[in-house]
Write a structure and sequence with these properties.
The chain is built from six helices and four strands; from the N terminus they run βααααβαβαβ. The chain is of the alpha+beta class and about 170 residues long. It has one domain: Phenylalanyl-tRNA Synthetase, Chain B, domain 3 (3-Layer(bba) Sandwich).
């Protein structure tokens, strides 16, 4: 698998703008409609990840939406993080690096509250992508996510993609 890392500095976390809240909600509503036509188990990303690991956290988000329980908005960081998990159909985790001393890939795949972020922080996002995705495309996805995150929460970012072998 590819592990994408986005490191943020100078981030100020606050409520997501109404436009982002609306976009995330619309995306969830569209997913709900799609899941009426295509079962969750047939979604490409979900299907692939279930072959890798029993049930990473992001699949719970899909199940919640499938029950008609849309994800609540929390703040500009978590809302964007949830949006990209749904869009990429891959595990995406956001951590406050000032609280995080050590973690494993398994921690990231299965733990939802490893090092929660505060309002002013240095943060890191780990994005897990499948190996068949070309590295250039992975870098484009990370750059897109990082730009959107920084437009909402400020700060600067650097990105990196590495191959992780299990």
């Amino acid at each position: 698998m590819l592990v994408g890392t986005i490191k943020y500095t100078g981030v100020t976390i606050s409520d997501a703008p109404q436009m982002i809240k609306g976009r995330v909600r619309l995306y969830q509503e569209n997913l709900l409609l799609e899941m009426d036509l295509t079962p969750l188990s047939e979604r490409a990303g979900v299907k692939l990840w279930q072959h890798i690991t029993p049930e990473p956290h992001f699949i719970h988000l899909f199940k919640q939406i499938h029950r008609g329980e849309f994800l609540p908005t929390r703040n500009g960081a978590h809302d964007i993080n949830d949006f990209f998990m749904l869009q990429y159909e891959s595990p995406v985790q956001l951590f406050d690096t000032t609280k995080l001393t050590h973690y494993t890939i398994q921690d990231v795949l299965y733990t939802t509250n490893l090092a929660p972020i505060d309002s002013h922080t240095t943060a890191i996002t780990q994005v897990f992508l499948l190996k068949d995705l070309p590295k250039e495309r992975a870098l484009q996805l990370l750059a897109s996510a990082a730009k959107m995150f920084c437009q909402i929460n400020g700060g600067d970012y650097t990105i990196d993609v590495k191959e992780h072998t299990q």
